Amino acid sequence: MEHPGRIVVVSADIGAGHDRAADELAARLRGRGFEVDRLNLLHLLPGPVHRAVRETYRGVLQRLPWSYHLLFRLTSRSRTSVRAIRVLLRPFRARIRRRIPPDTRAVVSTYPFANQLLGPLRRRGRLRVPVLTYVTDLVVHPTWLAPGVDVYCTVRHAELRRPDGVDVTLVEPLVSGAFGGDDKVDRRRARQRFGLPQDGVLALIVAGSWGAGEVAATAAEVLSTGVRPVVFCGRNRALYRRLSGAGRHVLGWVDDMPALMRAVDVVVENAGGLTCQEALAAGVPVVTYRPLPGHGRANATILARSGLTRWAGTPEQLGPVLAAVVGADPPAAPRDGPPPEDPAGLVAAAARRAAPAGPAEPERRPLLDPVGDAVAVVAALLQSTGGLR
Fold it and tell me: Which CATH superfamily is domain 180-325 in?
């Protein structure tokens, strides 16, 4: 049977949160019969520049967190800064347009800077198919907003200061069904699989695929409460080597996060993004502690206010908060308003209504030189809202 069309899903490998959401969306769309192309926005850059951008962002988060927080606040309050980012990214509009095949019927982004490229193309008529975005954070930072984007998909408890004319749809989190499915591995078998003790309370400490933030301090302070920390270091090998031993259970990259979450009693996280949504789907209580600057603190505020998580603000509060959530009933999902939509269903409906994108038009503007492109993108990406989960 002929497929109903092609959909391009645009993400970026800045952390893992943006990519994980894109992977889940792509899997759901393929299940509905669509051809799906995955596009890493940073692959538009030359390889060395791509790596420099990613490592610069990682370095700012790890070594200069105060500067990242300052940039996040400045771009939150100033529309001028977002327009400046859009101008800096302008040379890449033609490149991303050429990566959208003629038979494409919709484009979806899970990364905010992609909107600053796709929105203007859509508004100027150079991209004739719908542009939708799935916002991976709970705070809809202004860098997500771009003229020309047709629909913004946000989870129910996200906060958005909505400009006039912005179409926002409440959707389910893009979380794999494996986290809340009926085929759950029991706790005993899950602990055995990961070499964890069968007895005692275990707290899974998660700091994204980069192991960003004050992970060592968090592990020590969780241990001091009498709870055994299980530290997920992601792909941060230096952190893995540094934390191994001393009463902690330290893990590198884990492919089966649903099973790992079923092995523990509580998740302690610092970004409030996709990992938090996964834990809630799995029915595991979540505590936010030592949140990352910028988007981490903003997400923590919203999650705590909604009652979905608890925020331990000091080491003295950590023990009582952990004691309060372990063994307690998971928070109930909000019941007010209509039920959220499946984002894949929303995208599929838009794609079925659309005509194909057609071939890209020839570029009318000269591109910047490679050095100018690299400087522009590095400067802009330092102001990104980030994707660590």
Answer: Glycogen Phosphorylase B; (3.40.50.2000)
CATH class name, domain 6-172+340-381: alpha beta
Do 297 and 68 meet the contact criterion of CB atoms below 8 Å apart? no
Model confidence pLDDT, tens digit, residues 95-148: 999 999 999 999 999 999 999 999 999 999 999 999 999 998 887 888 888 999
The domains of the chain are located at 6-172+340-381, 180-325
The C-alpha atoms of residue 39 and residue 96 are separated, in whole angstroms, by 9
The pLDDT of residue 155 is 85
Position 164 scores a pLDDT of 55
* Partners of 232 in the β-ladder: 206, 251
Query: What order of strands is seen across the sheet that includes strand 131-134?
Result: 35-40, 6-11, 104-109, 131-134, 151-154, 168-170
If we measure between CA atoms, which residue out of 20, 49, 116 comes closest to residue 387? 20
Q: Distance (Å, rounded) from C-alpha 379 to C-alpha 53?
A: 9
- Among 55-64, 135-144, 259-268, top mean pLDDT goes to 259-268
Eight-class DSSP state of 144: G
Sign of CA dihedral 25, 26, 28, 29: positive
pTM of the model: 0.84
